[in-house]
Specification:
By secondary structure, the chain is α/β, with parallel strands linked by helices. The protein contains 11 helices and 12 strands. The chain folds into 2 domains: about 140 residues, Periplasmic binding protein-like II (D-Maltodextrin-Binding Protein, domain 2, 3-Layer(aba) Sandwich); about 100 residues, Periplasmic binding protein-like II (D-Maltodextrin-Binding Protein, domain 2, 3-Layer(aba) Sandwich). A 7-stranded mixed sheet has the order 2-1-3-10-4-12-11, sandwiched between helices. Helix 3 crosses helix 10 and helix 7 crosses helix 11.
Length: about 290
């Protein structure tokens, strides 16, 4: 009897070890990738990436989760602190994330109907504005609307373009006021509502808000467009295993073959490969503005 009980106990213990081993192996095999997006739009940028994340999940088997943040610095901090493994950053935010948060750019989206990853900053005024040209004489004493500190096309590039006409936003006497509205969409509407005289906004958001009917382009005039801006990239943390990073990149680059994909500004044609070196020009511009 004692022998039978010992055998049963041994079988139970072995079964328990096998079960725990399988459970542990199953837990270890599940890769969870948490993604964060900078808040460029009032429309909810994270929702633009849902279709892409679903396809990454189907190709890799990785569990893709979205993390929401309220500002650009929080997006960088999420990756620095290990709360986010992947991100959609603006170019300026990316170079900061690369510097302090081990971020590595790997892909950028080409929007539906476009043939390039680059975009622009538009300086916009109301149609009935007395401002006709992008000059120091016309802009002195006006109210300027920008997006958010840390935005590429809504902060860094507008300030750089203004420096070229001797209109440093940090120097008193140039502008009556510089307003940071919190998003490109808000900056566009701030100009329309007469709260600001001129706005520096992303061409991506400008095109998207025209397409969805939020704004009527006939209510505005574009008085200046910037030089091409390096695309806002997808980046992952270098702390992810190399194999995981390779699998994510491969999945993103072939995602368009598996269905409709989204990204910054809505539907994407496809994603193309980018590297950290593609953002060296943005780094130089950032140093100039500083």
């Amino acid at each position: 009897m004692k022998s039978i009980l010992c055998k049963l106990l041994l079988i139970f213990l072995l079964s328990l070890l096998i079960f725990n081993g399988c459970a542990k192996k199953s837990q270890e095999s599940e890769v969870v990738i948490r993604m964060v997006c900078v808040p460029a739009s009032e429309k909810g940028d994270e929702s633009d990436f849902i279709s892409l994340l679903d396809i990454i999940n189907k190709i890799t088997g990785y569990k893709m989760e979205m993390i929401k943040v309220t500002d650009y610095n929080a997006a960088v901090e999420a990756m620095r602190a290990g709360r986010a493994d992947m991100a959609w950053f603006g170019a300026k935010t990316y170079i900061e994330a690369a510097r302090i948060a081990d971020a590595e750019a790997f892909a950028a989206g080409i929007r539906k109907g476009k043939n390039s990853v680059v975009y622009y900053t538009h300086f916009i005024v109301r149609k009935d504005s007395p401002i006709k040209e992008f000059t120091k004489e016309e802009l002195t004493g006006t109210v300027l609307a920008l997006n958010h500190v840390g935005s590429t096309s809504g902060d860094l590039i507008p300030r750089y373009e203004l420096i070229q006409i001797d209109m440093n936003t940090k120097e008193k006497g140039n502008f009556k006021m510089v307003q940071y509205t919190g998003s490109h969409d808000a900056a566009i509407l701030t100009v329309l509502n007469g709260i600001a005289d001129v706005g520096g906004v992303s061409s991506v958001n400008w095109d998207a808000r025209i397409k969805d009917g939020t704004i009527n382009p006939d209510d505005y005039r574009i008085i200046h467009s910037s030089h091409p801006i390096a695309a806002a990239p997808l980046a992952y943390s270098k702390n992810l295993p190399e194999e995981v990073r390779k699998n994510i990149k491969a999945a993103v680059l072939e995602a368009h073959e598996h269905g409709t994909i989204g990204g910054y500004g809505g539907e994407m044609e496809r994603y193309v490969s980018v590297t950290d070196a593609d953002y060296d020009i943005t780094r130089k511009i950032s140093e100039t503005v500083k």
